[in-house]
Design a protein that fits this description.
- The structure is a single chain.
- With 161 residues, the chain is of the alpha+beta class.
- The protein is rod-shaped and about 100 Å long.
- The C terminus is likely disordered.
- The strands form two sheets. It has a three-stranded antiparallel β-sheet. It has a three-stranded antiparallel β-sheet with strand order 4-5-6, with no helix packed on it.
- It has two domains: 76 residues; 67 residues, no CATH class.
- The termini are far apart.
- The chain is built from three helices and six strands.
- The structure holds zinc ion.
- The site of zinc ion (ZN) has 8 residues, from helix 3.
């Protein structure tokens, strides 16, 4: 796209140069006028091609910026994901848990396995349950893990029952 715009810019400039050269040899006012109109047309073409080349370059710069951002995010996620290990919270219910001793430290928490597999860290939030169970909700994909049984959910529990 950019190459095409630059090629048509080059050909427009060459055509404009040819017309200008031929005008120098003209003595007839009407013929001169006709060539002046052609020249204006070619200059307009050249301007349009220059604008197209600029737009194509701007699009490439924008694309480069987006890719750089994506690389930074991927590197950041590669570091983040090492901080978690898969854990069976209760039989058949899985979440990624912050490993012990990671630096910098954070309070113990679980992240959503579904989002983790998609390269996203989404902390599961405890929803009020009854005396025997709690639900851990993902704010992103809306996964809801129901955890039944006393003492199965230690992180953030109110302790002692
Ligand atoms: Zn999720």
């Amino acid at each position: 796209m950019e190459v095409t715009a630059i090629m048509s810019l080059t050909s427009s400039l060459k055509a404009a140069g040819d017309i200008a050269n031929s005008m120098l040899k003209l003595r007839d006012a009407a013929a001169f006028q006709q060539k002046a109109i052609e020249l204006n047309g070619e200059i307009l073409n050249a301007q349009n091609s220059a604008l197209a080349a600029n737009a194509a370059q701007a699009a490439l710069i924008e694309e480069k910026r987006a890719l750089e951002k994506q690389i930074v995010e991927m590197k950041d996620w590669a570091r983040q994901k090492e901080r978690y290990g898969l854990k069976e919270i209760v039989r058949g219910v899985f979440a990624y848990e912050l490993k012990a001793g990671v630096e910098p430290p954070e309070p113990t928490h679980y992240v959503c396995t579904n989002c983790y597999e998609q390269g996203k860290k989404r902390i599961l939030y405890r929803q009020p349950g009854d005396a025997r169970s709690v639900t851990l909700d993902c704010p992103d994909c809306k996964t809801a893990l129901r955890v039944v049984g006393a003492g199965v959910y230690e992180a953030g529990s109110e302790g002692g029952h």
